[in-house]
Specification:
- By secondary structure, this protein is an all-alpha fold.
- The chain folds into 2 domains: 69 residues, Arc Repressor Mutant, subunit A; 140 residues, Orthogonal Bundle (Tetracycline Repressor, domain 2).
- 79% of the residues lie in helices and 0% in strands.
- α1 packs across α6 and α8 runs antiparallel to α9.
- The protein starts with 7 loop residues before the first helix and ends with a helix.
Length: 219
């Protein structure tokens, strides 16, 4: 017969540790599900806003596209503008990462890198028209908070351009860089308005004429 008795304090400690671990696991699982639902809403909203327009899309449409009830919308977002900003930031980040990867793969020559970045940018707009519409059309004139998100994204893009194109130890003229970036955006808007009818290579070379002036100014 086994007469060994367990230490009550050890049992209590083990029970407490198990309870804490279970709570931690449950907490992690809850947060993961919440993050997943938030991402579902963002992915769905990018498509809904890009296809129908932000001003013509309601919370219910986004939730239906995400396969979620409306109560889950307010779990992650206070209002639609917050969701729009999240969509914009995700799409802009994806676009910047794609452009940077293209530039780095093109070698070290600044002109070749510029062409690669522009080619990737215009090709992405053509391949993903809903994202293009979200980034360049639907985002404008919504609210001061949305405008702030646009400015942050443009600043991040400018920083990317300087990082991969500026000569070592040199900096671009900020006003010139802002003007060229705005020019490229307007080329894209004109191209989109005309149904992407001009080949990507031609649009790229047109925009590169602006980019070269920035490189020339950088020595």
């Amino acid at each position: 017969m086994n007469t060994t008795t367990s230490n009550p304090s050890s049992i209590a400690a083990a029970t407490a540790a198990t309870t804490v671990n279970k709570r931690h696991y449950r907490g992690s699982a809850v947060e993961e599900r919440r993050a997943q639902r938030r991402q579902q809403l963002i992915d769905a909203a990018i498509q809904v806003y890009g296809q129908n327009g932000y001003r013509h899309s309601g919370v219910k449409q986004v939730c239906d596209a995400a396969g979620l009830t409306q109560r889950y919308f307010y779990e992650s977002f206070a209002h639609s503008d917050e969701l729009l900003i999240a969509c914009y930031e995700q799409a802009a980040r994806w676009m910047r990462e794609d452009n940077m990867a293209a530039a780095k793969a093109a070698g070290r020559d600044p002109v070749v890198r510029s062409r690669a970045m522009l080619q990737a940018y215009f090709q992405s707009l053509k391949d993903n028209p809903t994202i293009g519409r979200l980034l360049l059309i639907e985002i404008r004139g919504i609210s001061p908070a949305v405008d702030e998100a646009i400015e942050k994204a443009l600043k991040a893009t400018s920083d990317d351009i300087a990082r991969v194109l500026a000569r070592p130890g040199r900096r671009f003229d900020e006003l010139l860089q802002a003007g060229i970036l705005g020019g490229v955006i307007h080329i894209a808007l004109h191209w989109m308005a005309n149904g992407y009818s001009t080949p990507v290579d031609v649009v790229t070379e047109t925009a590169l004429k602006l980019g070269v002036s920035l490189l020339d100014d950088n020595g």
